[in-house]
Amino acid sequence: xxxVQGKISLDDxxxxxxPEFGDVYASKDGAYEQSRFVFLGGxxxxxxxxxxxxxxxxxxxxxxxxxxxxxxxxxxxDPQRSGKLFYLxxxxxxxxxxxxxxxxxxxxxxxxxxxxxxxxxxTPGVHRLTFDEGxxxxxxxxxxxxxxxxxxxxxxxAFYPDGFSPKKNPEMWxxxxxxxxxxxxxEGATLATWCxxxxxxxxxxxxxxxxxxxxxxxxxxxxxxxxxxxxxxxRRSTTFLNSAEKPQSAIVIGxxxxxxxxxxxxxxxxxxxxxxxxxxxxASGASALRWGVVHAQPSGDDNQLFRLTRSGLEMxxxxxxxxxxxxxxxxxxxxxxxxxxxxxxxxxxxxLKPFSFPKDFxxxxxxxxxxSKIGLKPRLGGLxxxxxxxxxxxxxxxxxxxxxxxSLLFNTRVGSLSKQGKNCQAKDAFGQIIAEADxxxxxxxxxxxxxxxxxxxxxxxxxxxxxxxxxxxxxDLKGAVTGPGYAIHSPDDWIGVGATYESAxxxxxxxxxxxxxxxxxxxxxxxxxxxxxxxxxxxxxxxAPDRLxxxxxxxxxxxxxxxxxxxxxxxxxxxxxxxxxxxAKVIAAQMFxxxxxxxxxxxxxxxxxxxxxxxx
Length: 616
Description:
Strand order of the largest sheet: 6-7-5-4-8-9-11-10
Number of strands: 31
Radius of gyration: 26 Å
CATH topology of the largest domain: Rossmann fold
Low-confidence stretches: 237-241
Distance between the termini: 38 Å
Number of domains: 3
């Protein structure tokens, strides 16, 4: 899946104009005024969102963001506004942040500056931006409309179809596409558009909307409005379960990366959270790592792992701004493992595979240029990950637990889970209740499988050992480098090289583990012929057979028919630093029936149900 960066200029009348489509971005009668009249007025906003907990809008054709910015402004000005506003926007030709600012309507300059400051890297996928302390959520689907309709999940309350003219861009008004988007409408949902083409109105009618032509804005005499009033009740897909009732309390089992992320995300929604962990403090398991790397995992075919790590990295950026002293994201160098891999990368970049990488995300880099970035010359050229870097893992976990305000119960091992009515219970090995709540999220790595009775969750443990180098080694290295293994030199002079990947039946001796790690170091930097190891950090990775995380609500399964309210976040392997925030947001969205910030096929890829047998 590829996207094309949009181009924009001014036409003879001074209107924002698209050279690709030969059409203007907004009415010559005023972009802001058109948006208020057609899209807000036509969908009966702000009246329809008033007094509601949350309200969801879908737009096909984000462009300069005028409709979003107008909606945001109206929501902020309305004292009776909904508790949360979700805005899902599809755009196959995204513009640059500078375009958002330069071409904004005068009435929306302040809002446009705010949007431009948060504008994401132009890569395919879903990009989540938040405003007003998370009460306004913008999910940008950077992909063609034909792809986006297959990726949407959840339901909407209002629809803004706002592409270029059907004559200029017929794909966005294709009847099958419009019907596919409308299949996500809630009963009573409204739509509005300036377009009155008969084929468009027919598609909306066939999708279940009652359609009218009403007086239009400016030089357009008519526009289209509609309300979703289907003759037959909509039956939605149940691929992704949602909570029947929003939980007021939750138990989080595990106080590591996954658990601390979930605790924070639920606490933001007002949930009373209790974290239970077998260790003496937070981050006492694999998350005790002092520093870890954070970066996407590129692939030439844009595989699921690359897409998931891109999304995970995107979700992290706003979160890490809260902990500036614990993170360094000036960039990360990934050296090619050998000449063949470097040549493959060079060919992929030349052929724009899987897409044209923006330089503020990923670019090819020579060994000589890498030296100027990281302080040491690597053996080979490779990739530069802009905005990636390192994070102080254990400190971050403990800071998040404190920030969440959750009740913390340490030195307590959960032996089993059960349901009592609608409540979830965590019990010890003797069957005594440790905690009880509306929901429970299991975040205890490979131990997760032991807490789901009757479910065979195929998780394995792989030991990883990181060699800690003596003071004075790698002093010239700045940050981290990955490739065959990885090396970190942190701001507090912590130096680690690793890491081993040891199965349960093939454990290395200490000498073998150090030897393996130090061989990675000389592979990265052949000039470092002498380095002494002072000790180890070791932990256990939790891995699923497909090497993807296991995240979401546990569906009913043989031996566990009542799993409502039970969720898992585990199997992140070596990428817990990247996946934990994304996993927490997916789970919270499922609990609160919110739009999920991930494409539908990726939700399937990480869903716990992919391993379970359904009850007979």
